[in-house]
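Allow me, if you will, to draw on your knowledge of protein folds for a short while. Thank you for your consideration; the sequence and its tokens are set out here:
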Amino acid sequence: MITPYLHFESHCEEAMRSYQQVLGGDLDLMRYKEMPEAPEGYAHSEAIMHAALMSPYGDLMASDDPPHVASKPQSSVSVTVSTDTVADGRRIFGALVEGGVPTMEYGPSFFSPGFGMCVDRFGTSWIIMTTPAKPAG
């Protein structure tokens, strides 16, 4: 199993709570200050050391960059969500693109009844795709 792990520049909690609202599921958060014997610079940090969202669409993990570490937000990777219906795909795409930038509007394509790409307001690239119906037979 492969699980995407996203890195943020101090807004991991906000992003993951937003993804939880869109995708559903359970969210666990651990802050750097909660580390056993947290080293200097980490002991009072409210930043997220590890977040895990277990949603019906799959798991998504993330963290804020450690204190005093330069950030390199994700820019060359997309998280893909596959849906069973066009309506669900459109709902997810609409929620993720709000405040972000569509790179391909959600709609039918030659390989899917619903497909769209966007970068959300947190800088995460998403691909939302509806699984084509299986032919009867």
